[in-house]
Amino acid sequence: MCSNGALTVHLDRSAPSGYDVVEARTFDPAPVIGRALDVAPGVRVAVEEVGWGWRTSSAFEPDELNGQQKTVQMAELKAWPASRLALHAPEIRRCMSDLRATGVTVAPQRRDWLDITAPGVNKAVALDVVRAHLGIPADRTVAVGDGINDLDMLAWAARSVAMGQAPEIVRSTADQTTGSIEEAGALSVLASLVPAIDGALSPLAAQIATAERTARGPVALRVWHGSGPDLARCEAWALQGGRWVRHAPIPSGVGTTMRAIETAALEAGLPYPRGDEGRRRAQWRSVTGDGPAGFELPLSAL
Questions:
Q1: Cα-flanking dihedrals φ and ψ of residue 222, to 5°?
Q2: What is the pTM of this model?
Q3: Is-annotated flag, keyword Hydrolase (predicted)?
Q4: Are residues 106 and 138 in the same domain?
C-alpha cells in the first residue's frame, strides 16, 4: 500500500517495474486544483505519475518529491485522473476546509504542505482491504508511523507504534513509541513480531513448527505447484471461527517438494494423516479456491 492508500501494489520481480498495481483509487484533480489556486494563488502543484515521478506546476526541491519531475502547464495537471496530489504554499494548512469542500481527502504533512487523495481514501482504508484479502484477524494488525498522514492508520491498528522522531500528536495517538530512524526504531518492532525459532531444526521444519505453535486453531499446510514439480507456494492455514484462514507463509517450502514438507513435519514432531494403515506417504487432499488448485496436509486433529 502506498501513496497514502491510493495505490495497492503486489511485488513481482518478473514485472518490468518490480511490482504490479492491484488497485488505483484515482480522482479528478481539476476541482481541488482550482480551489487551491483561489485560496492560495501562489500554490505549487504536483500530480503523481505512478511508477515514474511527478508532473509539477514549477520545480520542487529534489528531496521534496520521490522520483523524477516534469514541469507542465496547469491545464495538463488538471486533465487526467490522479492517484495523489501535493500542494505546497505558506500556511496552506489553514485552507484544508476549503479544499475538503471539493470532496477529496486532505492529509496535512506540515504547515506548508498538503497531500490530496480520492474521497474516503487513506492508509487505514487501504490496509483494511489488504487485511481482509489475506484473512488476517483485525486484532493481529500492527502499524508503525511517523507522520500526520499516519494517524488514521495508527488508530486502525490493533497495536500502533510511533517512530521516535514523530510529532507529538502522532506519538500521543500511538500505543507506544520506538526509537527514531537513526536508531533503527522500526527494527525492534519487527523483531517483536517474529516468534522464537528452534535453531536445532532445519529452516523448513522450524518454520512449520512455529506456524503450528502460534496458530489459534487446527493447522493445515497448503502448497501449490508452479510449472514444474517444485512448489511455488507454501502456507500454513488455521481453522478459526469455523473457517480456514491464511495464518503464515512458509518461505523455506518454496522450491521444495511435497515429500520434503512431509519430512520436515516429522522432524518438527508434527504427525499427519497417512490414509490406510501402514501407508508410508502422507494423505494429501486437494483444495481449490483463490488461484490454482493445490494440496493440503492437516497437521492437527480437527
A1: -115, 135
A2: 0.70
A3: yes
A4: no
Whether 288 and 299 have beta carbons less than 8 Å apart is answered as no
The CATH number for 40's domain is 3.30.1240.10
Does 17 lie in the same domain as 85? yes
Pair 236, 282 in one domain: yes
Please compute, for residue 153, the number of CA atoms within 13 A of its CA located in the half-sphere on the CB side. 26
**Is there a contact between 58 and 72 (Cβ–Cβ < 8 Å)?**
no
Chosen domain end from 88, 117, 146: 117
Does 109 lie in the same domain as 7?
yes
Q: How many domains does the chain have?
A: 3
Angle (deg, nearest 10), helices 258-267 and 203-214: 70
Question: What's the CA gap between 161 and 178, in Å, rounded?
Answer: 7
In the chain, the amino acid numbered 186 is A
pLDDT for residue 276 = 58
Instruction: Give pLDDT < 50 ranges for the chain.
Output: none
Closest among 107, 34, 45 to 72, alpha carbons compared: 45
Q: Would you state the pLDDT for residue 58?
A: 96
- 198 inside domain: no
Per DSSP, the chain holds a count of helices (H) and strands (E) of 9, 16
d(CA 123, CA 40): 27
Distances (CA, A) of 34 to 45, 56, 104: 11, 15, 13
CA dist., res. 162 & res. 143, Å (int): 8
Q: Which of 169, 193, 217 is the last residue of a domain?
A: 193
H helices present in 83-177, as ranges: 96-100, 123-134, 151-156, 168-173
Q: Are residues 74 and 157 in the same domain?
A: no
Residue 24: count other Cβ atoms within 10 Å of its Cβ.
15
Predicted pLDDT of residue 15: 82
